Amino acid sequence: MFKLFVLVFLFLADINALTLQKALIYKEQNISGWVMSEKLDGIRAYWDGKNLLTRQGKIFHPPASFIKNFPSFELDGELWSKRGDFENIQSIVLDESPEVKWSQIKYKIFEVPHAKGDFLARLQKAQDFISKNNLAHVQIIEQKVCNTKEELDEFLKRVIAKGGEGVIIKDGSKEYFEGRSSSILKMKLAQDMEGKVIGYQDGSGKFKGMMGSLHVELDDGVKFYIGSGFSDEQRKNPPPIGSMVTFKYFGFTKYKKPKFASFMRVRKN
């Protein structure tokens, strides 16, 4: 009976998940004439015309003032404050009791789902609405035309130097699409991914009596251990089994396991 309940729960959770645009990894593709922007490390949020939703389709609970005068059309973007502030952003926007700290949050728009026209035309629709309604906390993420790989590399260097995490490159000529596509790519010095915690390995030496590493499973069933990136407090109180964690890595082994995986954070949304 318990197994049946779990399967039903997972099935319903999957039904609620939104079908959003997802980027593939940049691998020297021809991106001449595309547009590039900083990849913000915030919490993704989808405005469906009535509610602000997580990627899993759950409703955020911002103060009424935050979404006052929002458009009837859809928006896709990041709830964000500043670089290197992910944990603070997460604690604010996932709180079900709206509080004054939402004043720190901006809604940074990178897409206008289902709007007509090419990418920049869709963004212009949002910009016109934002300007008309004085939504100072809703902002379009700046887009720059990229003509060469050298321009992309230089832009990534500037983003990293400022404490950013990477760059998104997009074919601006395309009409709106859903799902993962070769028309939108991400470029970072290190990649990141999410996996589910399925167990622990005991620590030894200076970590004796604490967690040594997390046993993690990816969506494709690959299982491996993450042993670095943890504070002593996190080793004493590791992420619970079943939770989703974000980790960074540098490519894959021939067994499809992430190389040099390092823990970043528990993903709560």
Outline of the structure:
By secondary structure, the protein is of the alpha+beta class.
Give the helices and strands, then pairings:
Blueprint: H1 2-16, E1 21-25, E2 34-38, E3 43-47, E4 52-53, H2 64-67, E5 75-80, H3 86-93, E6 106-111, H4 119-132, E7 138-140, E8 144-146, H5 149-161, E9 167-170, E10 179-187, E11 191-202, E12 211-217, E13 223-226, H6 232-236, E14 244-249, E15 262-267
Parallel strand pairs: 1-10, 6-7
Antiparallel strand pairs: 2-8, 2-9, 3-4, 3-5, 5-6, 9-10, 11-12, 11-14, 12-13, 14-15
What is the fold-level CATH name, i.e. the topology of the largest domain?
D-amino Acid Aminotransferase, Chain A, domain 1
Listing every helix as H and every strand as E from the N terminus to the C terminus, the arrangement reads HEEEEHEHEHEEHEEEEEHEE
> Which structural class do you get from the secondary structure elements?
alpha+beta
- Residue stretches low in confidence (pLDDT < 50, at least 5 long) are 1-13
CATH superfamily annotation of the largest domain? DNA ligase/mRNA capping enzyme
DSSP helix fraction = 10-25%
Question: Major β-sheet, in short?
Answer: 5 strands, mixed
Commentary on this structure:
- A hairpin with a 4-residue loop joins strand 3 (43-47) and strand 4 (52-53).
- The protein has two domains: 21-187, D-amino Acid Aminotransferase, Chain A, domain 1 (2-Layer Sandwich), CATH 3.30.470.30; 191-267, Beta Barrel (OB fold (Dihydrolipoamide Acetyltransferase, E2P)).
- The protein is 22% helix and 31% strand.
- It has helices spanning 2-16, 64-67, 86-93, 119-132, 149-161, 232-236, and strands at 21-25, 34-38, 43-47, 52-53, 75-80, 106-111, 138-140, 144-146, 167-170, 179-187, 191-202, 211-217, 223-226, 244-249, 262-267.
